[in-house]
Model the fold of this input.
Amino acid sequence: MRILVTGGAGFIGSHVVDTYIEAGHDVVVVDNLNTGKQENVNPQARFYRVDIRDEDALRRVFEQEKPEVISHQAALANVRESMEKPAEYADVNIIGSIRLLELARTMGTRKVIYASTGGAVYGEPDFLPVTEEHPIRPLDNYGASKHAVEHYLYLYKHNYNLDYSILRYPNVYGPRQDPLGEAGVIAIFTGRMLKGQACTINGTGEQQRDFLYVGDVARANLLALEKGSGGIYNLGWEKGVDINSLFHMLAEAVGYDKPPVYGPPKLGEVFRIYLDATRARTELGWEPTVSLQEGLARTVAYFREHGV
Done:
């Protein structure tokens, strides 16, 4: 089928594009290259440099390509930055998504697969691992903006029969993640370790996250093409890894011998979060396959080969 991937030049989006193409689908990429890189785009995909807020340019893409499905990966995604730029995060993540949904509604698209965040929508959890029924209490503007779009997806399905599947990601890592920019901790630490630089752990390092390899995320987006109608799905390993342990695992993978530096905790960040993926397993047929140890080894190898 013909699939439009927003943010398809980005870290996660480009892996989603690769997975769709490997499965035989016809893929179109829209990305403004704010954080994405054109060299990430699969050469078999058709690329348009378009901001999802640019309604006219986006409409031209829809008229030209007539996508059956949208895989919506485009977003501003830096928790810390979102606390400094709440209006910009709302403009891109909410208003940009609404423009996309309006075109999908009027141009014949049948389904939207939406990249949401399990790490930021729930807030500090009442129980672990967190299920999809957990109360929504985001502590940062990024999480709030991503969750707002989930409501729009529901109303577009109810009113206009535009189908959707929502995938709530944990902490995603792997090749092509920018060690600068809106990077996750694994990319930041890998980049600094390979350069022999000090690594700063914010807070005590006892905070926990669920780290999921990007290839497993891309496979969930493939499965959601035909499954998960109107559903919300957590992705993850269902267990947390503390940042101190992660630091030492990564240091071993790199061959890094410096101790970590500790700094103050960051505003808006959850202390401990990991997700229950039972629903994704039973309804999508998805489960993670790349262990953290293997994923770290692949990530380090990629950074060594491509430089940081």
Observations:
- The chain has two domains: 2-173+211-236+276-288, 185-208+240-273+294-306.
